[in-house]
Specification:
- The protein is built from twelve helices and eleven strands.
- The longest helix has 45 residues.
- The protein has 394 residues and is an alpha+beta fold.
- Helix 2 packs antiparallel against helix 9, helix 10 packs across helix 12 and helix 11 runs antiparallel to helix 12.
- One of its GO terms (cellular component) is plasma membrane.
Length: 394
């Protein structure tokens, strides 16, 4: 009897409108989130577009600075002024080694004997675009991990190795090669084991852990390291026109390719956030629409609902029909959104597979959809019951 009475109060067009708008909103939200997780590893590998919004900054070297080397360094006042600029989020610097370093192999190693001088620098880990598992060093350790620019390996493979008739190496192969480091200074001479643990696409330097270089500069360094020739500058918004204006005005050199990648990162994230925002607005409007519709139905049939209450029906019994209808329609709408999102995902993964070595990530669609269903289910049940309770107690 209760079901038949309440069934006639529903407006089918409103329910269908709610289902369609919710399906569209959830589909957009799920698709964008899944696209982000699928494409993120690919873009990290191909263009590093998801790296932090930073660039390496140095002073332009003129003919006068060729004879006066002090002109290439940043002093503390210059660094502080740069930090205070509104478009700058943070500023850090490269720490150079102040001792002699050599790399060599032993007769026991299964690679040709060699010896070469090296230089080391270090930067805070948050600026690294690679995070190798072996990237740590503690005092007393005899192993020092190294990160080199990927361009160094390319120069060897396609330049030096070609001209000298030497074998070429892949990243995996060169990462397995162990060699020794000879570190000397302050009358001390020590040896450490080492190998290349990562390749950077952004930092053009030979990097070692900050903890090692801080300790080694004190142990082997001739003087306290105070000169800073290169800075790492993180921007609030890389597309801000004041960035290039500032560096041009102050005669500073900045890698414009890095800045372009940072701009790409900013615009990519901004576009994603904009689309997610649109999807959330659609979902919120659809939720508000169905709640408003239910509220209007309750107000329109207020007398009927009050009479049901007076003849013995409890508010939760009266609300159950509307809760059930909204919940079922919500499940159908979200299920439709999942199906559409899976189809769209299939289309873009097939396209990406033809262009890149693309491995799709594990789908988050079902987890996200269940989360949305739980949130909406709890919200609807509480608000519908609350409206019924208010109506019968007026």
């Amino acid at each position: 009897m209760l079901y038949k009475l309440q069934k006639n109060t529903l407006v089918k067009s409103q329910v269908i409108g709610y289902a369609l708008t919710l399906c569209i909103g959830v589909c957009i939200l799920l698709t964008v989130c899944q696209l982000y997780f699928d494409v993120k590893p690919l873009l990290q590998h191909q263009t590093d577009v998801f790296a932090s919004k930073y660039a390496v900054v140095s002073k332009n070297i003129s003919i006068f600075k060729t004879f006066d080397k002090e002109g290439i360094y940043f002093n503390k006042n210059e660094m502080e002024k740069l930090k205070q600029e509104p478009f700058v989020k943070s500023v850090s610097h490269f720490t150079p080694a102040s001792f002699k370093i050599g790399a060599y192999t032993d007769k026991n190693d299964n690679i040709p004997l060699f010896y070469t001088d090296l230089f080391f620098e270090s930067i805070p880990d948050k600026y690294l675009d690679v995070q190798p598992d072996d990237w740590q060093w503690t005092e007393g350790s005899r192993f020092v991990p190294i990160i080199i620019p990927e361009s160094y390996l390319n120069l060897y493979n396609f330049g030096f190795a070609e001209s000298q008739g030497l074998p070429v190496f892949s990243k995996n192969t060169i990462s397995q090669v162990r060699f020794n480091l000879e570190v000397s200074g302050n009358g001390k001479n020590d040896n450490y084991a080492s190998r290349i643990v990562g390749f950077s696409n952004k930092i053009n330097s030979i990097l070692v852990p900050q903890s090692f270089l801080d300790w080694a500069n004190k142990e082997y360094g001739k003087t306290e390291v105070s000169n800073t020739s290169r800075l790492l500058v993180e921007f609030e918004n890389p597309s801000d026109e004041r960035v290039l204006q500032y560096f041009n005005t102050h005669n500073l050199s900045i890698n414009k390719d890095e800045l372009e990648l940072s701009k790409m990162s900013f615009f990519f994230h901004s576009a994603l956030l904009f689309v997610v925002g649109i999807a959330l607005i659609i979902i919120v409007l659809s939720v508000a629409f169905i709640l408003l519709s239910v509220n209007l139905i309750i107000q329109k049939h207020k007398e009927q609902i009050v009479n049901l209450y007076y003849i013995g029906y409890q508010p939760y019994q009266i609300a159950r029909f509307y809760q059930w209808i909204i919940s079922v329609v919500t499940v159908i709408a979200v299920a439709g959104a999942i199906a559409l999102s899976l189809y769209i995902r299939k289309l873009y993964t097939e396209k990406l597979n033809t262009l890149f070595e693309f491995n799709s990530e594990q789908s988050i669609l079902f987890i996200a959809a269940i989360t949305i269903l739980l949130i909406l289910g709890v919200l609807y049940n509480l608000l519908v019951l609350r409206n019924i309770q208010k109506t019968v107690k007026l």
